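User: I've been trying to design a sequence by hand for this structure and keep getting stuck. Would you show me what you'd pick, starting by listing the structure so we're on the same page?

Assistant: Good idea, let's start from the same input. This is the structure you sent:
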């Protein structure tokens, strides 16, 4: 999201009351002075959201301030006794805090400006709070206070805020309390003093010396500039991790804890975290609680720490080795770019393409070289950055070059066995996050685990905020609507996917006058408010089951309101690989199913774009990569979309004509594979080649659940292309899965000549790939596959002696056997090869 403002000023209006002469108050004076100093220091304008108007009781102040908070990078809080007892000020603090990781790219976006002593802000118990407030009133007579001002609810709200404040302020001096009593006029005196040579030469006076004030103001300005530059540094980080979710809120504690795990020294140095030593952190939870979103948000929020090596996400569904996982990065051209003017090409040799273990070593070496190569360029890139605020001689530096890998959706224990994890170097440049539904104890990582992070349900306050985000103007229609929303949040029990789907559903219907109270009644009518605990079931398991039941109901309600084309698009998306669905593919499939309904008319809006907006509005489909604000406003469609696995599962169950949808998918992929056979290598084929990773991954995903003969033929084309132009080891593994699926089909239809021929083709491909790989035992395995292929072809010819196709297949198998024996060159192979050639 584009941020309009660099800073948001949060202050109590009483602290900025106008002077008797009609001039502005303290905060106004500080605002003007900060702008002046920043211009002198950085030569750039500082954009500040500063609401100078008092908040009237009937005004829509939350809307205005909420927009300012969403549009601001950093948060400046002017702490005073008035601030601490102001619900409005604390509301601003909490609202910013929920978005801090997105806005500030970290958890130190709040800078406190102290109008009172910091020690006064840390009372230890309720009585101390009362005593402290009485003392504040004594020292500041203008402060209005009653001894019972702080009730149980206020104390509950303030205490964690004070603890967090102390953490944030431990290394910053932003104390202006020595000058606050003198009012904003002190800044006018400061301006005159700074221009006075006599004052500059005079000995230091007590603590309220104006030169001390000047130094503190300069320090505040430098801190703001440096913090903005660290955000710019984060923008320079390479990688393929998508931008954070546009409605991501909360998870402050989990993100901060994950950062601590990754940055605090590991056991090698006596610490309790990873410390950049190649340890592995795991985020785990059942499906639907937001593991992947959390990992992506971490990569976005803390990108400045990975400005050199970047942040790289690898989908690991069904992957069982580190090498095969890392090979997925080779499909991404961004892996070769280390920065402006620097390209570090990754070229795997045939040996590395054939062996996943060697590929893993080569790719990790490449990432290490990329990380080192970018260090020298970062300072120059930051110097030219349009959002740079520090002068050339005071730019932030990368103290420790780092690279972050996210292994997403790990579902095979072998991937994180001790043997595989050994390929990940225990070196300071590499850090790894794993997301999984499994308990990390199931993996064999051993001592490489330092700390795991179990994703808890979304806190009620954050869930309520998420519901509010989707409402028109980011607010509920009234107090009754908000109270109903609170009860909905309680019913959803923090199940993140359910909260987001409900938020989207309520937001879409809000334009029709639909209120949260009506939705709450619907939940009650469907029996979705009370958790039933079955015999032998734990309370946690019952809540998860209940939440998934709620998700199913909300999905049904959402699907029911879709137009026919939008519902068809969802059904097709549910069949495809969930993380990266090419929008043109989805559009083609849907248009073929609804040619008249989606027929566009000149001068009219695209009907396909309308179907996409339906699906995205209800959060049934998402952009695979966050769309820039300008593109979103222009209605640009994302090139890739994604679907949550639980949403896909429900959509498949609700498909009215599943066989028809699968048949359409089969035809589509057969046409795409035909294009690969006919066009690759003949003229302009770059666009087609670029689609190969999608074709390979989607077909690999589909054969696990839908291994039709047509689909398997398309898959073999993708495997052949992978063997010729990509990774030989990946092509071999893919063909092995294809052969297994074809063999099962043949076992069920032993008289099918077409299926037998398909098996023979894959056997020959296996022989070719094994022969090319050349690892120990591959030659013998290749010969066995060639012999099996020949046996199948000869069996078909015996059954159909007049078949020219069967005769050709036998001839092809004999020729391949002869070629293999000639290459192997063992004693007797030459004679055997000759016999096979003669039989051809």
């Amino acid at each position: 999201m584009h941020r309009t403002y660099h800073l948001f000023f949060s202050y109590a209006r009483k602290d900025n009351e106008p002077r008797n002469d009609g001039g502005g108050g303290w905060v106004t004076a500080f605002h003007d002075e900060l702008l002046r100093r920043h211009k002198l220091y950085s030569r750039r304008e500082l954009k500040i959201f500063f609401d100078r108007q008092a908040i009237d009781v009937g005004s829509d102040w939350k809307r205005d301030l909420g927009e300012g908070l969403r549009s601001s990078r950093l948060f400046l809080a002017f702490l005073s006794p008035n601030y601490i007892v102001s619900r409005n000020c604390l509301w601003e603090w909490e609202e910013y805090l929920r978005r801090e990781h997105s806005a500030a790219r970290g958890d130190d976006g709040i800078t406190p400006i102290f109008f009172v002593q910091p020690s006064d802000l840390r009372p230890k118990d309720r009585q101390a709070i009362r005593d402290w407030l009485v003392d504040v009133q004594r020292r500041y007579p203008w402060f209005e206070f009653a001894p019972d001002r702080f009730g149980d609810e206020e104390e509950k709200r303030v205490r964690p805020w004070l603890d967090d404040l102390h953490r944030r302020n431990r290394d910053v001096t932003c104390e202006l309390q020595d000058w606050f009593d003198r009012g904003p006029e002190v800044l006018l005196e400061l301006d005159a003093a700074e221009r006075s040579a006599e004052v500059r030469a005079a000995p230091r006076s007590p603590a309220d010396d104006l030169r001390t004030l000047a130094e503190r103001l300069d320090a505040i300005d430098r801190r703001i500039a440096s913090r903005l530059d660290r955000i710019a540094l984060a923008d320079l980080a390479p990688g393929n991790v998508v931008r954070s979710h546009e409605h991501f809120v909360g998870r402050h504690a989990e993100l901060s804890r994950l950062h601590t795990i990754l940055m605090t020294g590991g056991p090698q140095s006596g610490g309790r975290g990873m410390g950049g030593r190649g340890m592995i952190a795991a985020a785990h939870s059942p499906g639907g609680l937001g593991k992947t979103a959390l990992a992506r948000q971490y990569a976005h929020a803390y990108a400045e720490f990975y400005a050199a090596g970047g942040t790289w996400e690898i989908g690991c569904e069904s992957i069982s080795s580190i090498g095969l996982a890392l090979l997925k990065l080779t499909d991404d051209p961004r892996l070769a770019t280390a920065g402006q003017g620097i390209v570090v090409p990754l070229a795997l040799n045939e040996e590395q393409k054939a062996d996943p273990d060697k590929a893993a070593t080569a790719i990790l070496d490449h990432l290490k070289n990329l990380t080192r190569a970018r260090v020298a360029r970062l300072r120059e890139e930051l110097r030219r950055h349009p959002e740079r605020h520090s002068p050339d001689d005071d730019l932030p530096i990368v103290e420790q070059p780092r690279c972050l890998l996210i292994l997403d959706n790990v579902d095979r224990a072998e991937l994180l066995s001790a043997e595989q994890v050994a390929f990940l170097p225990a070196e300071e440049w590499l850090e790894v996050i794993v997301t999984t539904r499994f308990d990390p104890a199931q993996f064999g990582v051993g001592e490489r685990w330092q700390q795991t992070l179990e994703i808890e349900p979304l806190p009620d306050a954050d869930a309520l905020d998420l519901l509010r985000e989707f409402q028109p103007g980011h607010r509920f229609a009234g107090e009754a609507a908000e109270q109903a929303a609170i009860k909905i949040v309680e019913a959803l029990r923090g199940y993140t996917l359910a909260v987001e789907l409900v938020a989207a559903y309520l937001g879409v219907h809000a334009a029709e006058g639909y209120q949260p109270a009506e939705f709450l009644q619907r939940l009650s009518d469907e029996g979705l408010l009370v958790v039933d605990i079955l015999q032998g079931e734990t309370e946690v398991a019952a809540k998860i089951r209940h939440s998934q039941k709620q998700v199913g109901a909300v999905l049904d309600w959402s699907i029911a309101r879709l137009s026919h084309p939008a519902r068809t698009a969802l059904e097709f998306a549910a069949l495809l690989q969930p993380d990266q669905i090419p929008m043109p593919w989805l559009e083609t499939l849907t248009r073929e199913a609804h040619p008249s309904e989606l027929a566009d008319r000149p001068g009219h809006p695209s009907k396909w774009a309308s179907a996409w907006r339906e699906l995205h509005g209800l959060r049934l489909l998402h952009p695979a990569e966050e769309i820039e604000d300008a593109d979103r406003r222009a209605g640009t469609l994302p090139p890739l979309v994604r679907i949550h696995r639980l949403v896909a599962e429900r959509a498949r169950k609700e498909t009215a004509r599943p066989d028809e949808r699968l048949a359409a998918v089969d035809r589509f992929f057969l046409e795409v594979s035909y294009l690969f056979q006919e066009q690759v290598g003949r003229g302009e084929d770059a666009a087609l080649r670029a689609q190969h990773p999608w074709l390979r991954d989607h077909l690999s995903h589909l054969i696990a659940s839908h291994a039709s003969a047509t689909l398997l033929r398309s898959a073999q084309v993708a495997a052949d292309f992978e063997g010729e132009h990509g990774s030989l080891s990946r092509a071999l593994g893919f063909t092995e899965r294809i052969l297994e699926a074809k063999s099962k089909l043949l076992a069920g239809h032993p008289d099918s000549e077409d299926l037998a021929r398909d098996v023979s083709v894959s056997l020959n491909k296996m022989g070719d790939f094994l022969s090319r790989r050349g690892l120990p035992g591959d030659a013998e395995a290749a010969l066995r596959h060639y012999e099996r292929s020949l046996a199948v072809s000869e069996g078909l010819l015996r059954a159909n002696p007049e078949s020219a196709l069967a005769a050709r297949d036998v001839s092809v198998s004999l020729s391949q056997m002869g070629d293999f024996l000639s290459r192997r060159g063992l004693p007797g192979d030459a004679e055997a090869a000759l016999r096979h050639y003669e039989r051809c």
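That's my pick for every position. To get oriented when you compare it with your attempt: The two ends are 66 Å apart (CA to CA). Confidence is low (pLDDT under 50) at residues 54-58, 266-276.
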